[in-house]
Amino acid sequence: MAKVRDFVDRYLTGVSFPSIGILDIIEIGILTFLIYHLILWIRDTRAWNLCKGLVMLFGFFVLSYILQWNVILWLFTNTMGVGITALLVIFQPELRRALEQLGRQNIKVQLFATEESEDSNERYTTKTIQELVRACSELGKAKTGALIVIEMNTALGEFERTGIVVDAVVTSQLLINIFEHNTPLHDGAVLIRGNRISSATCYLPLSDNMQLNKALGTRHRAGIGVSEVTDSITLIVSEETGGISVAINGKLRQNIDVDLLREILIEGQNRTVEMKKIKLFRKGRKKA
Q1: Pick from 99, 163, 179, 280: CA 20 to 30 A from residue 82's CA?
Q2: C-beta of residue 114 within 8 angstroms of C-beta of residue 40
Q3: Cα–Cα nearest to 54, from 94, 11, 18, 84
Q4: At 278, which helix (H) or strand (E)?
Q5: pTM surpassing 0.70?
Q6: 47, 154 in Cβ contact below 8 A?
Q7: Residue 273: which residues within 8 A CB-CB, separation 6 or more?
Q8: Per-residue pLDDT tens over the stretch 158-187
């Protein structure tokens, strides 16, 4: 009991809690609203993965401070200014897009509502796998080029906005019709979220990997490019050969049959939230 009294006298005596008024509550509410929607905005962009890396760096900084690793602390302190400038450069596209949206749209105070649908994180079903496999098979036989991006954990909103909204159930007939020559939606990529085609004619970033086969066309380079910056599964049908390819994690596997395509999609369907690597894709993969 004496130790408790001594602790109270030493550390808690004189401790005072600030008074909270109406203006303070309003300020807390505004900050909560802004931080909440900032997190939602970051989560729908590629910046989400960068933010997770920054959290890890901050944790390492805290650990260095606790353990008094002076050299590491010195490095953190002296590179802070450069790091802030680098962050502005890295996040420049996202920041510009956010400011443009803020200027175009009316602000809607929806503290607990989001623009995401309830099934935005839903994995595609076995029926969707069957439709995708059938569509790729038929497109390959007809030598009709196709580029299909399946969203996993990383949101594809920034690419979705470059296309035309479709919002339809995934069916092989619809996919074949979209990529048919001389149709309005055939040029560009189709994005799939869950069991629905979210948009078509989307623009994707081209891969700048110098080790890629020079014979690969724009469609394959775009498929690899989006797989480098997201965790998506990208299906590519060659217009020249009719071959089916799959791009995952910046790697391309070409000329696969429909059975292996089905297995890869099933493995992707069973991915955990932690995003385990696809074992079937990793085994025996060939360099592009």
Answers
A1: 99
A2: yes
A3: 84
A4: none
A5: no
A6: no
A7: 153
A8: 888 889 999 999 999 999 999 998 888 888
